[in-house]
Amino acid sequence: MQEHAHNTPGTSTYYYPVVGRKSTGAVFDRLPITDMQKNDPYQFSLFILSYSAVQGVRDPTLAFPIPAIELPAASYFQIAGIHGKPYHEYAGDRKPPLEREADYSENSPKDTLPTPSRFGGYCNHGSVTFPTWHRPYVMLIEQAVGNTADRIAANIEKQYPSEVGKWVPEAKKLRFPYWDWADPATNPKGLPAVLYEDTVEILLPGGKSATVQNPISYYTYQGGIPSDFADVYTAS
């Protein structure tokens, strides 16, 4: 992939501004994940498929094409890395080559002193600005997943004429779901199965269903575990 000198719209293959879900026709709610799974099967299926896609996972048994991510910055690895490790520069807002330097260096006093290191990724943990920082961060993953869902839905309707009007409108409505840990139902029911089971059932064209890898439950590193992820052992 060619790298350009200036990180401005139209001149960089890395430029990925956070704009949220634009051009969807209206404002739609973020739904509880359990409600989406139960009441909105099209949205839920598109969410699972698109969340898997940004993680670099594609089920080979599916009969319709799953598109690649738009840009490196739209990948799960890059977006999740903003929150903490690996301590690398985010691909969506790179410095020009002449100005580039690592955001973190184990040999740099600015990152290693005082002890412990002051750097913990881009996230404003332990700061009053955390809520305002976190809002665009959620918009970013929602944007990556939603834009991918739009393309998956278009592929489905193109390949299956009888499905026209079923998937594309639901993709427009799709927003990143949530789980409310403070809901009173959490105490008796515990963690919903969709958050920890390794596989999940989704809807397919023609009213069929399939069991696929659950991208909410775990993430498989593409290309191996980053070098700055170390095993931590504690005495028992």
From TrEMBL:
The record ties this protein, via PROSITE patterns, to: TYROSINASE_1
Gene3D superfamilies given in the database record: Di-copper center containing domain from catechol oxidase (1.10.1280.10)
Cross-referenced SUPFAM superfamilies, in alphabetical order?
Answer: Di-copper centre-containing domain (SSF48056)
For this UniProt entry, the molecular function terms from Gene Ontology, in alphabetical order, are: oxidoreductase activity
Compositional bias per record (Basic and acidic residues), positions renumbered to this chain: 90-103
InterPro entries tied to this protein: Di-copper_centre_dom_sf (IPR008922), Tyrosinase_Cu-bd (IPR002227)
Positions of region (Disordered): 90-117
**Residue span, Tyrosinase copper-binding domain:** 125-142
Can you say what this protein is called?
Tyrosinase copper-binding domain-containing protein
